[in-house]
Amino acid sequence: GGARAVSFTRSMPLRVGIVGFGNFGQFLARWFVAGGHSVFGASRSDYTKEAKQLGVTFFRDTAEMLREGAVDVVILATSIISFGSVLSSIPPDALEGRLIVDVLSVKILPKDLLLSKLPASCDIVCSHPMFGPESGRHGWKDLPFVYEAVRISDHHRFCRFLALWEEQGCKMTKLSCEEHDRLAAGSQFVTHLTGRVLGKLNLHSTPINTKGFESLLALIHSTAEDSFDLFYALYAHNANSESQLEMFSKAIDAIRADLAAFKEKQAKR
Q1: Residue 7 — left, alpha, or beta (φ > 0 → left; ψ -120 to 50 → alpha)?
Q2: Tens place of pLDDT for every residue, the chain, 269 residues?
Q3: Which of 152, 194, 234, 245 is deepest in the core (most CB within 10 A)?
């Protein structure tokens, strides 16, 4: 009976407030509602219509949402660029005692801001759901959810929050924000950079696509789906991005030189 009781309390419905109700916020809301949770949304833009279709109660004012919705967990689903200003615009007393979670794809930045700006009574989780409206369209099974429990006093609520993702089948990965950013520095920006460079070539599908070409088209498509805001933020908040950009340019020049040298060698034969 003990194990059943624990699994039951873990999956008791949560009251989730999502601040920033754009594409990603709506995407999370859809799945949380499907999981039987009460979801509330707040945004500077008016998403009343979208929220209603999703079964979400929408507010134009975050403090009002926190008060009226009596939310357990606040998910800050803003862009990286506006994260600091959105956080500063929420009255700290409205956040007292709640679990505050970020879902940004860079991690040290939100960790520092949340620790410096939130009341001490707030619990903090920094997370990166490594999927979005495209890749998570048919469900989240086996998709990675990376998180660090930065400050937790209410362990029961924290377990219920993790269950939001576990119940959908996410691959739960515990990782410090520092380690996340160190690992992402080598892969994240260069992936987006490559997709954007290829995007400038105006490539189109053909009746005889190879598997490799299909992969390139998929990369172009997935980076085009993301905003330039995100691309810029990955550039600005990544210590490696400037050198990667430089190496990318040099790599093109080196390959051009290799081709020219080979061509010359062929001519001498």
Answers
A1: alpha
A2: 555 544 555 568 999 999 999 999 999 999 999 999 999 999 999 999 999 999 999 999 999 999 999 999 999 999 999 999 999 999 999 999 999 999 999 999 999 999 999 999 999 999 999 999 988 999 999 999 999 999 999 999 999 999 999 999 999 999 999 999 989 988 999 999 999 999 999 999 999 999 999 999 999 998 988 889 999 999 998 888 999 999 999 999 999 999 999 999 999 98
A3: 234
Pairing of strands 73-76, 57-59: unpaired
What DSSP string describes 121-174? Answer: T-EEEEEEES--TTTTTT--TT-EEEEEEEE-S-HHHHHHHHHHHHTTT-EEEE
For residue 222, the tally of other CB atoms under 10 A from its CB is: 15
> How far is Cα 152 from Cα 119, in angstroms, rounded to an integer?
13
Give 93-112 as a 3 state SS string: HHHCCCEEEECCCCCHHHHH
